[in-house]
Design goal:
290 residues, alpha/beta, Rossmann fold, Helicase, Ruva Protein, domain 3, Arc Repressor Mutant, subunit A, 3 domains, five-stranded parallel beta sheet, three-stranded antiparallel beta sheet
Amino acid sequence: MHGKDARNVLITGETGTGKTSLVRWILNEHFEREHAYVNCLNCRSEHKILESILIQLGHVIPENKPTDYLSQRFAKKVGSDVVVCLDEVDQIKDDRILQSLSIQQCCLALITNRPFFFDDIDGRVRSRLFLAELEFPRYTQPELAGIVSDRVQYALKPDSIPHRLIELIASWARGDARVALQTVRAAAISAETNRRDEITLDDLKVAFKGAIQSKREYLKSKLNDHERFLLEVVEQRKRIASGELFGLYTKSTLQPLGERAYRIQMEHLVQTGLVRDSGEGRWKKFELAP
């Protein structure tokens, strides 16, 4: 924005903390024709990511061209005045795309709710990326109530929902703006369908359950095969000791990860809110989060 070399940035934080919303707002407001945004949940391969970036920047891509061709086009056509955002960057198939982008002059904004994903990236690639890290904390209850209040004023008729119910939503959502806003939206649709002018507590309760289920399905869609298996075992057993879980995992998986990697997978399941842990070390236990 100020004519200086940009610093690559890694943006982390839990779901619903505004990472994507803020980055996309900045890109659209200040780099309208000089940015590309790619959600790696939909474009996971190097070929798909490069293709998406080039098309967004206005370049015509002939069909059936190999990845090396796209990489060469990218190196020639994309300069230092372009910002490339890779959202859900932990979903990429391998780190070759990061290696390709790390040697280019464009600015990178990488978004993930799995910061330890970069622990497995080649150290030389991490060094070239030279990422400034920015963590988005959970919203506090007053902050989230303010966000919901602003959206309600913009989207709904006056007096559609009492302020005490807005504060209740902010409490239920535990810092997740996505859950809070989805709850209000679904509750408003329910009230409108039933021809009521005001959202009720019952509307919110039903809507909140749906928002939580939607969040769980979204988080589960991002799990790798190892995490998916571990979560299924916890779902079946309800509560299980860490040692027993690791034993079942190693016996039932063709190529199980080591104990350290297993602990990282479980830490991520706890961080996402899908699983809850208690105890320490050999006495640690896992159970399904409510």
